[in-house]
Structures are given as structure tokens and as C-alpha cells.
């Protein structure tokens, strides 16, 4: 399924309803830095997020060092942000909440 | 257990015996980019590497996008490279070999 690039107003609306996700300087990606208690919690979060990513067939760019996971989401095929990005972002927030420090 | 920073000659010797690991420009880290068939194989590699990292109590800095995993290893407490870095690097190479494309 092909997802359409979202209008900027819809992107802003989505971001306003979420916590700590920021629009990239390029305007075509969103990012968030997740912090956990330790590596096990961080990687456990990544595992839950990876299952969601594979299910949605939409994958993150992410960096991990010990208890921190920096995530960037974008839909390259659409040249910007789509519903897929916000769907994965919300799944990640949910996974992070379960491991809240 | 405290690991001692390795002499440069020992670092070079270790690197010479390994495949594709490169010494960072800073001289205190080693890096390698792993490539897999898809996200599932890449994340499966990361999972095996995460278990080794936790077992060794020595964790990577790593970036993943789809089928690629870029890894950087260093021992911050020692201000450079220690046996721990090469131990984890070898475990990662072994994990990657099992998923060779």
C-alpha cells in the first residue's frame, strides 16, 4: 500500500498530540530521544518497536548507546511524513511507557 | 573488573586478524558496518549481539537503518580500546556470519 505525504498542517496537528517528538530541520522527518534505566530496558524497547516496525512494514533509523535510543522516522518513498510514521511513533511511545523509569 | 587500555601495537595486531573493523580517526574506537538481507536479519543480529553485550557488561554504540547496522566500540572507562572491545567485536562477527547474505 502506498501512503500519501501528509500536509504540513496535519503533521503539526499530529505532533501537537504527541510527547517530545520533534520535526526535523528538513521538515520531512520526526525524531525523539528515548531514555531508559539501563541497556536491558532500552533493548527490550527496541525489540518491541522492531516487531511493530516489521508488522507495519515501516522501519526506523535509530541509534542506541547504553540506555538511550535516538529515533528518526520518515517515509522515503513519499519524500516526507506519512501516516505510517505517526503510527510507528505512537507504537514506540506505547512501548516506552511500559518501561518508564 | 577493570580492563587496561591496549597498546597501539596490540590494537593493530587484533585488527589485522579481523575482517573489516577499522580504527577510528580518534584512535580510541573501532567501527564496522554490517549489511544483511533485510530488517529481520539485521535485528536478529542485533539481538544476538545485545545478549553478548549484556553478558560481557560491555555495550556498543550502534545505528540501524533497515538492513544495515553500523557499530562503534570503545571502552570509555579506560579512555581507549581494551580486550572487552575485541571480545564484543568477535562475538558480533560470529553473529553476523550466521546470517551471512
From TrEMBL, chains A, B:
SUPFAM superfamilies, alphabetically? PCD-like
Q: Pfam families, per this entry?
A: Pterin_4a (PF01329)
Sorted alphabetically, the Gene Ontology BP terms of this entry are: tetrahydrobiopterin biosynthetic process
What EC identifiers does the entry list?
A: 4.2.1.96
Molecular function per GO: 4-alpha-hydroxytetrahydrobiopterin dehydratase activity
Q: Which UniProt keywords apply?
A: Lyase
Q: Which domain of life is it from?
A: Bacteria
* Reactions this protein catalyses: (4aS,6R)-4a-hydroxy-L-erythro-5,6,7,8-tetrahydrobiopterin = (6R)-L-erythro-6,7-dihydrobiopterin + H2O
| Sequence similarity | Belongs to the pterin-4-alpha-carbinolamine dehydratase family.
Kindly give the NCBIfam families that the UniProt entry links to this protein: PRK00823.1-2 (NF002017), PRK00823.1-3 (NF002018)
The protein's name? Putative pterin-4-alpha-carbinolamine dehydratase
